[in-house]
Amino acid sequence: MELKQLSKTLMINHQEVTFYGNNNIPAMGIFTSALLRSLQQVKSKRIIDVGCGSGVIGIYALIQGCDFVLFNDIQKEALELTSCNLKSNQILDRFQLRQCPFSELDGMELATFDLLTFCAPQFPIKYFSQNPFPNDEQVFRDGGPDGWKILREFLDWYATLKPTPPPAILVFSSILGKSTIRDEIQKRDLRWKHHSSYEFPLRQSLVKAFEQSNALLLEERGIVITPDGKWCKSLHVIEVNTNQTL
Ligand SMILES: C[S@@+](CC[C@H](N)C(=O)[O-])C[C@H]1O[C@@H](n2cnc3c(N)ncnc32)[C@H](O)[C@@H]1O
Asked: What is the whole-number distance in angstroms between the Cα of residue 214 and the centre of ligand 1?
């Protein structure tokens, strides 16, 4: 497999760790960096990295001392990339790779884990007349017309898992809509806890889509314009749980 020249290096436990991406799957995106900051506070021992992409979240957890990670992705190429990244970081055991849609993961098996993570694809394509994805990143990013396609599928599946699944740490872009995020979680009777939010620049293509919007819509979409004219959105890291005790 041809690996992108552009790799990402993170400092994890005073160790330089490099992650590679390829043409379809970036080494790591801004959603991941938001989720990783939250993972620093989590001391889980068995993690399911759903939609693992390059494997960056699970590998980060393994280097931080997690006992076992189940890497899952719908794309064969993502598991191949994860496998390369595990080898290049000398991680030879304490993991399994599983290629399938998350909806095929077994509830009994999931219940043996204590955390699930997922940075779901959530790019809303309705704002674009032409394919907005650079390279072949469509499966990585495409969230359907309003950005919610995969997240709704995930929340539907997660909310009905039996036995009780582990808590899930998810990242939501504010452009999905503040009240919609809350409603989509609450209508499935999930408990939720806000971990953290981070501001990031809005892609130029999305700035165009929102330029004509009124202040109310920008507020609902968490879009702010900084005093020096930069358009920013927020990424919210949220923990959901089917358990009443969260
Ligand atoms: C935004 S990327 C996140 C990748 C990686 N976790 C990261 O943070 O860089 C979303 C990932 O979800 C995967 N994916 C999309 N639909 C999926 C599904 N139904 N089941 C499992 N993985 C899926 C994509 O292939 C992609 O690798």
From this structure: 32
